């Protein structure tokens, strides 16, 4: 009894300490970021469309109500000088993802500490590096967390009014966050509900299913990439192996070997009857979700990103979440089953120590391997953000003070170009007029920006 209480206390501490450290780590890495690329599209939408239209109009083919609301508060109530509000939303949504993944893994039989460490790794490092730094992903991260969390509740709790309300409302809210991520996420949660609950409680998934399917049938979706099925299949395979490799800080080749080894291990577990109950439920549900994620990204993005997953790291995160949730509990169940059938070469007195320390040690190794991807990605990302911020400040000074003699302001000019082609002189002028951008009084504009947006009369 005393041992059980001590174990429960340690698990409770882990549920607080690891997510809290993850949130601090996330906030720390966002401290130097600003507005970038698609941020400016949403900012412009806030300025130019009504609240009703902004809430109901798709964004890049996705229903994106919650993201639009976040940016509306930022632009109209706070302004753009500070990035803190959106960054805080991103940290909060990242925390939802971490806790939801950990809860699903714990429900599948993985230990608490390993579940939390793996969830933090997926959310913040390796595959999660871009989502962690690109704050516009906040609403999408929230959707992923809500869907995985709904599945975790259905997996570990019996159906009652409270759990049914939690699952049903989470899935509906997920559609409002990002209909694209909701499609695969609701598929995951729906399969978990169907395999875990019986009878009428299963109907709680219907409103979310109807909402997300309706958008994908009747909403304004983005254009499909007009490539061959073979090209899409090769892209999907590349995405999967890159995702697997990114989990251990390596590339597609190492990812392919890891994937093959994991599939072999899980196959042994299935044939031997080790993968049953909750681990089998997660294998089926997350596996189906993974297939849908790979197919959807290949359908829409294969021609845009090719096999460049360094600058499109977020697609790895989309696949990493269902991949980890599908194979990790099944692999853990297989290892436990094998331990009961074959003796271990580890001496008896050391066996508990090795069993307790080896899984967290492997996860920590994966963490350290994933730091490189985050460090490399963040260096260029932050540099670009700072360049955009300086260019926007310079443009706002020029808007306030006017162009040099003999030149006039070109409202259609790009303030900085490829890093943020949506950032035009006209947008900066409107933001400055509304007070969302505050031009500094004691600073001269960058001559390069002057040359870009001031044309000869």
What is the strand tally?
Answer: 2
Radius of gyration: 24 Å
- For the residues shown, what is the average pLDDT? 87
Per DSSP, the total helix count is 18
Strand order of the largest sheet: 1-2
Shape: elongated
Oligomer status: single chain
Terminal Cα separation, in Å?
85 Å
Percent strand? under 5%
Which blocks of ≥5 consecutive residues have pLDDT under 50?
A: none
What is the chain-wise order of helices and strands? Answer: HHHHHHHHHHHHHHHHEHHE
Helix content: over 70%
Which structural class best describes the helix and strand composition?
A: mainly alpha
Q: Main beta sheet: strand number and arrangement?
A: 2 strands, antiparallel
Structural notes for this entry:
The chain has 457 residues and is mainly alpha-helical. Helix content is 73%, strand content 1%. It is built from 18 helices and two strands. It has helices at residues 2-29, 38-48, 51-56, 65-78, 84-107, 112-124, 129-133, 138-156, 161-177, 179-196, 206-218, 229-246, 252-272, 277-305, 314-341, 351-401, 425-434, 447-453, and strands spanning 407-409, 454-456. A two-stranded antiparallel ribbon has the order 1-2. Helix 2 crosses helix 4 and helix 12 packs across helix 13. The termini are far apart.
Task: Write a compact overview of the structure shown.
The chain is an all-alpha fold.
Throw out a few tags for this protein.
457 residues; 18 helices; 73% helix; mainly alpha; single chain; elongated
Give the arrangement of secondary structure elements.
Layout: H1 2-29, H2 38-48, H3 51-56, H4 65-78, H5 84-107, H6 112-124, H7 129-133, H8 138-156, H9 161-177, H10 179-196, H11 206-218, H12 229-246, H13 252-272, H14 277-305, H15 314-341, H16 351-401, E1 407-409, H17 425-434, H18 447-453, E2 454-456
Antiparallel strand pairs: 1-2
Helix pairs in contact: 1-5, 1-6, 2-4, 5-6, 5-8, 5-15, 6-16, 8-9, 8-10, 9-10, 9-11, 10-11, 10-14, 12-13, 12-14, 12-15, 13-15, 14-15, 16-17
